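Help! Submission page says 'invalid entity' but I think these are all valid:
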Amino acid sequence: MKSIFDDRLQKAQNGVAKSLYRLIAEKKSNIVLSLDVPQKARFFDILNHVADEIVVLKIHIDIMHDFNDDFIKELLLLKEKHHFLIFEDRKFADIGNTVKAQYTEGIFKIIEWADIVTAHIFPGPGCIEGLRSAWQETQIKDRAVVILPQMTSRDNLFDDIALSAGIKWAHEYCDIIIGFIGSASVYKDTPERETQLMYLRKESLPEMLILTPGIQLDVSGDNLGQTYVTPETSISQGGDLIIVGRGIYNAENPLKSAEVYKKAGWDALVKRETEKED
Amino acid sequence: MKSIFDDRLQKAQNGVAKSLYRLIAEKKSNIVLSLDVPQKARFFDILNHVADEIVVLKIHIDIMHDFNDDFIKELLLLKEKHHFLIFEDRKFADIGNTVKAQYTEGIFKIIEWADIVTAHIFPGPGCIEGLRSAWQETQIKDRAVVILPQMTSRDNLFDDIALSAGIKWAHEYCDIIIGFIGSASVYKDTPERETQLMYLRKESLPEMLILTPGIQLDVSGDNLGQTYVTPETSISQGGDLIIVGRGIYNAENPLKSAEVYKKAGWDALVKRETEKED
């Protein structure tokens, strides 16, 4: 039997994308855990419990208390043991020279441990070129960038022009860009009520991965203005990975919750991919 | 005799803006030194030499090698001695909750030592609200944000709509936003060849400060595609502070170079303000 995403795995040029496609199939999971927990002990406690259920760990290194080199060492040991990719959600947003320094230098040296980083598109492609040139100058084999062609925050300035620019640049820089952050909660500015997520999937290279934020299983509760989407809605529209944060790390039993999200995400993914083959 | 910017000083609501207007008049300088020098010893060596010539020190804390709490202590001692403001060019670009954590937590605790930070407008006003809410919850008296209503990098996605949004939000959040990064090298999308800088000055609150990047005295040389503007052009169009980096820190004699930029910037400022009164 052909394994899920086999076609896309063959097409992918970037080593991180290849690893991620393999991990999804092996672990039967498309969960990105967004672990915004600044206390080191609690961070590793939760990660230890749920690491086998996830394929990517998304962090903000600059909110961690008591960061030091041991934090990275411990993280890399867990990565080795449980097989997940490390995603620093840095949202680089400066000119090329500056992001290059921010990616490689300073106390974090992000390039040394983060398989994936995010970059904004509105500063223009120089931002991506800065990251790529840092990568080309190192001995590090696989590094990847995920870009944001949209945001879901109130009154943001992303529009359909930004969406198209993101798709175009992902194509042009497909050696380092492996995908997008994309949400089903944003509609295109056309009468057809097509979501930007549907358009992203339709118009971008097949090997591009789409990571969808704001995922919650229960979307009926009081969401304080945040827009949440179920795994099924998101994945049926083209999302490949679902980013889950508080739904797992604030749960009474994070492992149990991770298992529930994992099953929901995986079932929706298998359903979509099976229907495509029919 | 009335001192320069007296009117704008009276109007300013934000304590950092007030301090900055006073510093400009006292030091007869409108120089923002962009000190992108990651080696601590060289960083402090240059700063020690030129600190009396500048009013703001702009840094990227996340590119500094060997950062630790002593770095901040040493920086604050120099600030105390030479009177300048500290500007962390973080370019916050995430949702409110995340930028709030990035501003206050982690190893850098930016809010504790940076008088000024930059924020992007693309994510919408929630980004500014996140920073403001962090500020309101601390005991720290004066903190300020400078926003980017434009960028000069190639093929960036900023347009006249973004420019107007920036002006509008600066007005709405004028308790914490004290001004803009704005360059004379970008034109408005109108037939009149009006620069975005001229428009920014005309349309924004008078107390808003405009910091202009890409300033060089000699704009005839080989600039490798970077767009540079002279202090005079920039200031005559409404720029208040000139951001100078390599022109000072890569000069054979940084102090001498800082003095030259300081005189050029100050003369252009006095000329503009005097002509206005006539």
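Support: the input was valid. A stray whitespace character was the problem, and the output above is from the cleaned input. Chain B has a mean pLDDT of 94.
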